[in-house]
Amino acid sequence: MTAHSTPSATVLYDIPGPHTRKRHRVYGIVSTVLLLALVGWVIHLLFDTDQFTSAKWSPFEYKGIQELLLRGLGNTLKAFAYAAVLSLALGAVLAVGRLSEHRPVRWVSTVLVEFFRAMPVLVMIFFIFVALKVQPLPALVAGLTLYNGSVLAEVFRTGINSVERGQGEAAYALGMRKTHVTTYVLAPQAIRAMLPTIISQLVVALKDTSLGYLITYEEFLHAGKLIASNLDYDLPFIPVVMVISPIYIGMCMLLSWFATWVARRQRRNPKTEAVGVGRAQPGTLMPGAR
Amino acid sequence: MDVLTDNFSLYGKGFLGTVELTVYASVLAMVLGFVMASFRVAPVGSLRVIGTVWVTVLRNTPLTLLFFAVLLGLPRFGLVLPFNVFAVLALGCYTSAFICEVLRSGINTVPTGQGEAARSLGMTFGQTLGNVVLPQAFRSVIPPVGSTLIALAKNSAIAGAFSVTELLGTYKTLNELGYSIIWTFVWIAVGYLIITLTISALFHVMEKRWGVAR
User: Fold this and answer.
1) pTM for this prediction
2) CB nearest B133 (choices: A11, A118, A126)
3) Residues whose CB falls within 8 Å of the CB of residue B89, separated by 6 or more in sequence, listed in order
4) Which residues form a coiled coil (chain A) (predicted)?
5) Is B98 in contact with A289 (Cβ distance < 8 A)?
6) Are A185 and A167 in contact (CB under 8 A)?
7) What one-character DSSP code corresponds to residue B211?
8) A51-96, pLDDT tens digit by residue?
């Protein structure tokens, strides 16, 4: 659904005629004017509180500070890379556990998945950091892995369960063992269908790396805070937010767009169309939403 | 074990802080989410753009960054409010983007024919919306709204790290008092479980009552 296209028939209203279109144009102009007024007011406020003075923007010219920001960004990406790989691995293990034929294995993995999904990520990260006295990076990665891993386990499990039953039955009829059926027949189909959801969950992991800031891990936001609270530059909080947020939001948007791109490509793909898996729900981008 | 009995009032204060934050932020998120969802399905182009930008930006913002910008940035703007209000603002705005998408997908589940039938009976826009479309949409969004609000309750932990009185924040005081850190966290975890399970039970009841049987 693009924002600029003319509205097609929806449940809410008919395709507008010439009269209504004229009326809508008036509404459009009025709301645009109101919006521009709001933006203008914000810009006025920014100038009014001296956010564009050279003192507040000068830190970004220094090489040391640029390096500080880059190092922070590098640390953010490092934490993300670890967390992504490990949570995919943990997710696979827990999903296999939940699909196991042995009842104790199934129970243990169900309890683990349910518990880690129900806890706030930050509580787990703090627990590992404060109570177990782990260094910031491993604590952050461990917390993110436990949470995203158990969410991904559910994604993998529903993916494997949604592959048509005949596929597995046919494989068993050929004499394959359960491991072979899962790895050669079910998992490849499930992963293709689940790829958009998996990538969306990785966006959550990327967003949550910023929690490292709260346990003094020297990531991107931490670097920003260091610059922002510097008295020499007249506490440039707003400039720092204006520099940091586009980069953060841009990274996450890129990954989200990749997820939608994969989803759109797959919808046209006859190989995955056979596996009827629900599209990634909008809520999946949010940590904790199922 | 005695961490809880010795510091019941501290835990209680933190627990109530989380509940309060969750309730206020939920209300804000529902209201803002409803406004943005109606923008996104509006026939006016510029309103749709506003809704889309709001959702896209907020869904891709790390909540910690949003808290940082609102709690530490806005005061530099000359806007000084209590930290709790700022926390509600950040949490509510963030969640509103997810609520908006849930509501919009709920409206999309109503078949186009329903609206067409209502209009062909001569119903006005308000009647079509209020009597035909929204009741059906409402019934299909109960479960996803529930899980979004559970996520909100869990996300409120971040407010504690930004020194808002809240359940997770209690660990700092207890740590300084020298209590067993493991038990401190066990009771914090129990507190969060009580909150999320209550929301989940509430929405389960609502779904049983009004949900669509498919």
Assistant:
1) 0.87
2) A11
3) B28, B70
4) none
5) yes
6) yes
7) P
8) 888 888 888 888 888 899 999 999 999 999 999 999 999 999 999 9
